[in-house]
Amino acid sequence: MGRRQLAKVIPPELVGQFKKRIYNRCLNLKLSGVLKNIRHIPVKKADYSFLQLYLNKSCQWGDMQSILHIWSKYVLRHKVLIIPPEALCDISNLAKVQGHDEIPSQVYKYYQDYYEIGHLQNSIMKYKYELTKINIEINAKDPHLTFVKKWNTFLEVMDKGLPPDTLFDVRDYPFLTMSVYQTPEDTIQELLIVDNETPIANPTTLTLLLNMVLLQRNSFSLDFKIRIFEKLLESYPNLDYKDSIAILMNKTKSEPYWMNRLLTMIIEKDMKSEITTRALRNIPKFDQSNPSMDSVRTMYLLKKLKIEYRFIPK
Length: 314
What we know:
Layout: H1 3-9, H2 17-27, H3 31-38, H4 48-60, H5 64-77, H6 85-97, H7 103-114, H8 120-123, H9 125-140, H10 147-159, H11 174-178, H12 185-192, H13 205-214, H14 222-235, H15 242-252, H16 256-268, H17 277-280, H18 293-304
């Protein structure tokens, strides 16, 4: 970067050692010092290449104050800095984590205005997914909204608003998953076993909801979880249940009766291909010297599935 470019971001009377110091601070991650130095520089004197470098470093190291300064001054207020989609995702994620819940909706609107147009849309769909997902998670944090309202927002924005081949993974929605807590069982059943009046566009939407229910620790019994899994399986046999089975194997690993019910269902529905390595990690070790009747049954079912199991060392 030449001397003239540097003069744009640094007041003329300070060009020299100051310009070296501000770049060194940025490159050496002394970002709060950079913010103090550039906060009052007029927009017309800003060097936008430097600001991009500064923003990238701030995103990389989670310096939210620097990000907020650039976002507020150069993007929202003066609209002179173009932010690439990758950086938009970084800004939105950091804002969510650090409690700046107003930022993700601003970022998503910016994305819509600058990128969600014509032929560009398909090539950057992954960024739309990331940004909408963050806004769904922000919405899920609202304690005044019921889970049903949060789920309806998900259906409107994600299920209907994104391509039907988008994969929804329960690990991406921790706040929405926490929102399921204490939702009545009959409400969960109504949401899962949908009718033709509320069609679901994405085949992974229902398994996402199922998995959020299965992950609950202090609500919903194992009996309910097994039953709701079985009901969904009967209604929609062609969905991908790999994560669901892995979660249930984890939940039942110390409950042989319920594991036997699950394994029996897998055998009857010919679902061995749905058992992943992650699920197999939950196979318990058995007491060879004094096995219970349920444990004997579990070993029998595992043999039928041609799944290896181990014994507790003597």
